[in-house]
Amino acid sequence: WNRAQELIGLCKLAVMRRPGDHVYTGMHEDLLPGISQRVVMVDAPVLEISSSEIIHRIRQGMSVRYLVQDSVLAYIHQENIYRE
Hints:
Elements: H1 4-10, E1 13-16, E2 39-42, H2 51-59, H3 70-78
Parallel strand pairs: 1-2
C-alpha cells in the first residue's frame, strides 16, 4: 500500500478471509506497528474473487457488477479508476 502507516492511522481496516488463508489481526505488526488495533476481521460469505481480478476485469472492459457495490462501481467509473 502507498502510505500504509498513514492509512491505518486514518481508519480501521475490514479484512475478509479467503478460503485457505490463515490471516489474523497482528500478522503484519512488525511491518506496520499498530495495525493489530486497526484491523477488524469480517466473517462473511466468501467470494472466489480478488481485488486484482476486479482491477483486471475493469481494465479489460468486463463487468464487475455484483462483485462490488453499485456505489463503488459508480465511483470507479466517475473517477476513471483502474483504467490504463
